UniProtKB/TrEMBL annotation:
The chain crosses the membrane at residues 29-47. This is Endoplasmic reticulum vesicle transporter-domain-containing protein. It is found in: Membrane. Its main location: membrane. Residues 11-100 form the Endoplasmic reticulum vesicle transporter N-terminal domain. It is a multi-pass membrane protein. Keywords: Membrane, Transmembrane, Transmembrane helix.
Length: 288
């Protein structure tokens, strides 16, 4: 009992609310308890406020961009495991009137085999004879290839390659149709290249510089063209499928889709806001 009594006496010394006059300075167990509990609460509040002050927080906020005639960068990396690179077209449209089909600046296509292994990297490399060596060897210096009813945008109005014919058809709003009936495509082995690449996938990556206005960019199968003020894709080859009978589809995996300048900062909070679609995987077995 003596020890318990002395312990309580010592504990009373913590009483911070003793009476001001000596005659009334009576330290109690209740007062000591209130003092200790108050001290613990104060220390907890001070530390929590200090931690909150030292911890940065990210708060999303929508503001009006007052910049005019400025460009925005879009970085992307998307894999299409069941679409060959030559069939994919990247197009940009916005409300300012800009309409770009087959956008290729700073856009790279990587051919993939069925296991997803890289075959060859190409910066918007076209099918056919890209060196134009065959054209120079087989055509006379003053020859002018036919555009088969279309009007070429070239200065000489000639279509000496399969790609020239294809671009002329796009300008007219026509689909290319059967390339076996086009002499330039036959000469460059266009059909053989299509058949060789039909069992491949494609990784499309790079970055776009677009106007800061409402608009869209999309990656779609088939060459795009304008027809009656509408944006149209030639889907004949996509719907017909590969020469061996298997169908194409637009299953895809988004590795990166980031709006704004690309930085090396991999902070999770930043990436969650600016690259929120990373890792999105969409699978379909429909070719239409």
């Amino acid at each position: 009992m003596a020890k318990d009594g002395s312990l309580f006496v010592r504990f009373r010394q913590f009483d911070a609310y003793a009476k001001t006059l000596d005659d009334f300075r009576v330290k109690t167990l209740t007062g000591a308890s209130v003092t200790v509990i108050s001290a613990i609460i104060i220390i907890f509040l001070v530390l929590s406020e200090l931690i909150a002050y030292r911890t940065p927080t990210w708060v999303p906020e929508l503001i009006v961009d007052k910049g005019r005639k400025e460009k925005m960068t879009i970085n992307f990396n998307i894999t299409f495991p069941k679409m060959p690179c030559h069939m994919l077209s990247l197009d940009i449209m916005d409300d300012s009137g800009e309409h770009i089909t087959g956008y290729s600046h700073d856009v790279y296509k990587v051919r993939l085999d069925l296991m997803g292994v890289q075959i060859k990297s190409e910066k918007e490399q076209k099918l056919g004879d890209n060196t134009k060596a065959a054209e120079k060897a087989l055509l006379a210096p003053d020859s002018c290839g036919s555009c088969y009813g279309a009007v070429s945008s070239r200065e000489d109005k000639c279509c000496n390659t399969c790609e020239d014919v294809r671009e002329a058809y796009v300008n007219m709003g026509w689909g290319l149709g059967d390339t076996d009936k086009i002499e330039q495509c036959l000469r460059e082995g266009w059909r053989e290249r299509i058949e060789t690449q039909s069992n491949e996938g494609c990784n499309v990556h790079g970055h776009l510089s677009v106007n800061k206005v409402r608009g869209n960019f999309h990656i779609a199968p088939g060459q795009a063209f304008q027809q009656s003020s509408m944006h149209v894709h030639d889907l004949n080859n996509f719907i017909a499928g590969a020469p061996d009978g298997h169908s194409f589809d637009l299953s895809h995996n988004i590795h990166r889709l980031k709006f704004g300048p690309d930085t090396n900062d991999e902070n999770e909070a930043i990436m969650a806001i600016t690259n929120s679609l990373a890792g999105t995987n969409k699978v379909t077995d429909k070719s239409r």
